[in-house]
Specification:
Shape: globular
Structural class: alpha/beta
Order of helices and strands: EHEHEHHHEEEHEHHEHE
Number of strands: 9
Strand order of the largest sheet: 4-3-1-2-6
CATH class: Alpha Beta
Mean pLDDT: 82
């Protein structure tokens, strides 16, 4: 905590879901950066986030989970011992098996999974803040739950892009690229190995019915992330990453 009489500048990062029904809740309020994720409890940004927090002097992490969570549904499927063939191996390794280890010895009903997932995400965020180095004060962690209503109807697009920085909004990025905010899922990525970065798009493709297009947008602010997204796009075009039967496009 900050010492009495010392005013700390709030440096906030917001992490919400890729689901377009939650976008208004992610885009509200000031933030240094906004992340839209798939399976954000244990997803692909986990290893890179402490470096990100340190570079941007982040002292508050706000996580916004929601009802009707697709990652929770994946875990529910994955906890069935006979489910190995239903879920991609990378998703088992990075989402289901860590969840299984976390609940070892617990009596867990399917109704508990979403709340336990939120608790895991809180613990991960607290660990990020403890290990970010350089910035000594931990101001807080806000974990809010959004009630999700309705369904996403029509043709769906998955947009893969770097995080949105310094007060900009994910919804503005989507509309600025000529996409429909009501039917566009967004996954923001930090650069890591190609295999690790591909997990969230694979999760989306495998478990959202009717995904017609996967759009790659490298952006112009975060050069390292842009280069990594370029590499993922090239791998997808060459068939090295399996993204279902969706059309693959590049948006600049």
């Amino acid at each position: 905590m900050a010492k009495l009489g010392v005013v700390m500048t709030q440096r906030i990062v917001e992490i919400g879901c890729m689901d377009p029904r939650t976008r208004n809740d992610i885009d509200n309020g000031p933030a240094v950066a906004r992340f839209s994720r798939a399976g954000g409890w244990v997803g692909g940004i986990k290893a890179k986030m402490p470096d990100f927090l340190r570079r941007h002097s982040i002292n508050i992490v706000k996580i916004k989970t929601h009802s009707d969570c697709g990652a929770a549904k994946v875990v529910q499927i994955g906890l069935d011992e006979g489910s190995r063939g239903q879920v991609a191996p990378q998703i088992h390794d990075t989402i289901i098996d860590p969840f299984r280890r976390h609940i070892a010895g617990m009596r867990v009903s399917t109704e508990d999974i979403e709340d336990i997932g939120t608790m895991i995400q809180q613990n991960i965020a607290l660990d990020w803040l403890r290990h970010r180095g350089g910035v000594k004060s931990l101001e807080g962690l806000c974990c809010t739950k959004i009630k999700t209503v309705g369904k996403v109807e029509g043709r769906k697009t998955l947009l893969i892009t770097p995080p949105v920085y310094e007060g900009n909004r994910i919804s503005d990025l989507v509309s600025g690229l000529g996409l429909d905010n009501s039917t566009t899922y967004v996954v923001t990525l930090l650069p890591t190995s190609l295999e690790q970065m591909a997990i969230d798009p694979m999760l989306a493709i495998n478990h959202i019915k009717g995904m017609d297009t996967v759009a790659f947008h490298a952006g112009s602010i975060d050069r390292e992330s842009g280069t990594a997204i370029d590499a993922m796009h090239n791998a997808a075009v060459r068939g090295l990453i399996r993204l279902g039967n969706a059309d693959i496009v590049r948006l600049d």
